[in-house]
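User: Teach me something about this protein's shape.
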Amino acid sequence: MIAVQNLSVAYGTAQALDAISLTLAQGRRLAVLGESGSGKSTLAMAICGLLPTGARTTGRIGFPTLNAPVLGRDIGVVFQDPAGSLNPVLTIGEQIAEVAVVHRGHTWREAEAHAARLLDRMGIPRPTEALRRHPHEFSGGQRQRIALAAALAADPVLLIADEPTSALDTVVQHAMVELLDSLVRERGLTLLFVTHDIALASMLADEVAILHAGRLMESGPVAQVFRTPAHAYTRALLAARLDLDTPLQHRLPEIGANFTVVTPHG
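Assistant: First, the predicted structure itself:
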């Protein structure tokens, strides 16, 4: 569904991405993993056409199975901070319904009924009443579910999620991941999501792409890359992960800055 070929992106003199090439097949799930500043969000925003004005790009992004995909209709996007992606002066019903009106030709009455069904599926209490409320009246976790409902309102075939759980606490993160997993299965979506969370990538993705300083270090099936990482950076990233099995007083390894790219897993 996505074919990225030699994609480079620069902001002024800063090189955000450097000759990235990867593919994502229809129905698969790709996690883009790396440290802050590695170029993960830039890659996601480049694919959905939301790079800021002034970004310089070279290379090609193709959608072999989609005919001229339209953002909002064919591609749904969920951002890291729902407070920044939801309009504070419009009700959530207006914001979700508008997507169905614009991209699916629903009447407003049909679109509002569709929005209520989506909110119910997202686990928002009393969805019909919730349609009349504004974003600030909901918790952070609920706002992210509402943003997900808006992203799915036009029944897209591709969902791009940029750190969809990083602004949530641990319990709410787990619930959000379970919801996202079930929705992807129900709708047969292709999913590309950005994360720095190795555990989340392990749970939710089929494939992983490891970025560092704007370069693709390694890519391939999640189980293969995490079990037998081919690149020193991937090994360092995995070793730096903290979990309940990490020994007390154990000093985490420092990740250096100089890595060369190796041939990724197939």
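Now, about its shape. The radius of gyration is 19 Å. The CA atoms of residues 89 and 134 lie 7 Å apart. If you'd like, I can walk through any region in more detail.
User: That's plenty for now, thanks!
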